[in-house]
Amino acid sequence: MHIDEYSAWICIEGLAAPVYEVQRENNSTSCWIASQVGKKFSVNWYNATRQSPVQATVIIDGNVCDNHIMLDAQRYPNKPSGVGISYARTSDWTRRDFQFSSILVSDDDSYLDTVQASMDIGTITLQIWRIEVQEVVSETLKHRYGAPTLDDRIVHERSKKAGAHHVTYGDEYASPAPTVDMVRGRTIDTTPIATFTFKYRPYDILLANEIIPRPAPTPSSSSTAQVDEETAAQIRRLENRLNALKSKAKLSASSGIQKNSAKPKSSRRAKGRSSFSVPPNADVIDLTLL
Fold this sequence. Notes:
elongated
């Protein structure tokens, strides 16, 4: 999806996810994507111009999961123009990847409050904010504890979210803290200059709600079946013709042999000629075109 010089997309297991029903309103755009249980994903964005420094905020299921600052090209020409966010740090030495998971369902009435609650489940949002940079210092990233985490959610079986997906963390693995540009500054505006919202649901739900178009029927259903039938009929006609010619040849050969047997045998043979003679009135069969 695109808004002015900014673009954003979701990659699932390294492949860009197809988007459906893209809608644009002012500085916001939204679409649907199909989520897959157990598949890891990343939130990606690109700034085509980098005219001014901006901050991107990644919000997953209502939780702020990452803030990333992209510096302007004029003062920082060697900095990247694109960013991909696929994990959350859990300590100075570990991190966990984002992945789609099934929402847990319970018949316990203590979860009845989830029946009508939206819980912000099923959305991945990327907000782009203009910022004023006051200082940039390169240093080792320090993990901040106490941030919201993406834990398994439990809803009542009558909840409208039952059967849907949400985002959780994958297994924790070692990853030393990187050296990054720590930026001190402030946001300029009260609203983002661009907002991308990816609404995700299981493929079957999007298909049932006609958000994903149903696959077109394959051409083999009618035309191919007709072609196959015509080919089969032609083969049968050729086989019948071949069998008829073989039968006719046998009858002609038998008739010629009987006539020749009544004549006296010649005691001499012509030099260089075969003793076999073609029966009279025998058809010559050319099978090269069959």
